[in-house]
Amino acid sequence: MTGIISTVSPAQHRAVIGSGATDLASLPAHIRRDPGAHRVVTGDRPTGPLHLGHYIGTLANRVRLQNLGVPVTVIVADYQVITDREETGPLRDRVRTLIAEYLAAGIDPRRSVIVAHSSVPALNQLMLPFLSLVTDAELHRNPTVKAESLASRRSLSGLLLTYPVHQAADILGLRGDVVPVGRDQLPHVEVARTIARRFNARYGPVFVEPDALLTATPAVLGVDGAKMSKTRGNTILLGAGEDETAAAIRGARTDGLRHITFDPHSRPQVANLLSIVGALVHRDPCDVAEQIGDGGAAALKDLTIETVNESLRDLRRRRGDLLADPGYLDEVLLAGTTSALATCCDVLQQVRRAMAMGMDYLQA
Predict the structure, then answer these.
(1) Parallel, antiparallel, or unpaired for β 211-214 and 72-76?
(2) Angle at 273 (CA atoms; ends 310, 144), nearest 5 degrees
């Protein structure tokens, strides 16, 4: 599926985990052979602007897959904002910011689709039959749900408990068969695989079991040494100014050893900065460490500041131009949502036919 916008905008890890998991650094031959035969489905919750961890971990890989010829659908998961919070915040502005950051990073609406979850009712209609295919115990065992529940410090809501099924409806409803994820999200993809398998066994073949696509990039740590997260407030935002970026990196935790080495186990904060530089300039972080040598933390931080600001300079300029034209961002979202509606409504009709539910009352 490709978007229907035709205008341009203004202005070394190997996969070893889980059934269906594949590493982006060694993309499977069947995808390279016929990229157009597959479909990536991915997305983000619009809880705030994206940060450097998003760019290194997901955004850059979405663009690479798109440029290989794989159709990419990016879901703005607006309904899922309330899985762990009571208020949505300035949702429309946040959605526009997400779209601007996608496009600024290289997502091309002529080749990829950006869709708002809440604008595709069929995705939520798929939730009901899908919920009948999983048990209460399976939902409670999901490690990602457990972790998110603990992080929210709130009672487990029904929406958070069924969050993986919600994601399964997004993936299967939009015909996704390749889902780029970090290792912590593998259990969610496994729920989608389980639902597809059980539906096919009970009602007949409708769904392809989606494969998880693991990236070789480790989780990017924030300036406080914990995982970079909007909730923790330890991020380097994609839209931050260069001085703000420099201040954040200069304040990042390292250690007292002068000689710089890449040792993720013993020196995680130092390794994190080396990994950021390596990911942005496509170099082995061990080589980056050797380049710095006895320069110490100051030289490491100077190199990281220079690399981040240089790598994001054009993206930040494009982001500013795009945010200045909200009408264009709305046009991109409308076109992508229209395309996704057609796909998901077709899937819903196939589901109803397979289940022999005869729900065409309004056509009588």
Answers:
(1) unpaired
(2) 110
Per-position b or e across 92-105, b if 16+ CB within 10 A of its CB: eebbbbbbbbbbbb
The answer as to whether 229 is a domain residue is no
Are 288 and 354 in a shared domain?
A: no
**In-domain check, residue 31:** yes
Residue-wise pLDDT tens for the chain (364 aa)? Answer: 322 232 223 332 222 223 456 656 567 788 888 999 999 999 999 999 999 999 988 898 899 999 999 999 999 999 888 887 778 889 999 999 999 999 999 999 999 999 999 999 999 999 999 999 999 999 998 887 878 777 767 778 898 899 999 999 999 999 999 998 877 788 989 999 999 999 999 999 999 999 998 866 667 888 777 777 776 777 899 999 999 999 999 999 999 999 999 999 999 999 999 999 999 999 999 999 999 999 999 999 999 999 999 999 999 999 999 999 999 999 999 999 999 999 999 999 999 999 987 776 766 5
Contact between 139 and 161 under an 8 Å Cβ cutoff? The reply is yes
> What is the CATH classification number for the domain harbouring 292?
1.10.240.10
Q: How far apart are CA 83 and CA 55, in angstroms?
A: 23
Whether the full predicted model's pTM is greater than 0.90, yes or no, is no
Looking at the structure, tell me whether residues 342 and 278 fall in a common domain: no
CATH of the domain at 69: 3.40.50.620
Is residue 271 assigned to a domain? Answer: yes
Domain housing 284: 242-319
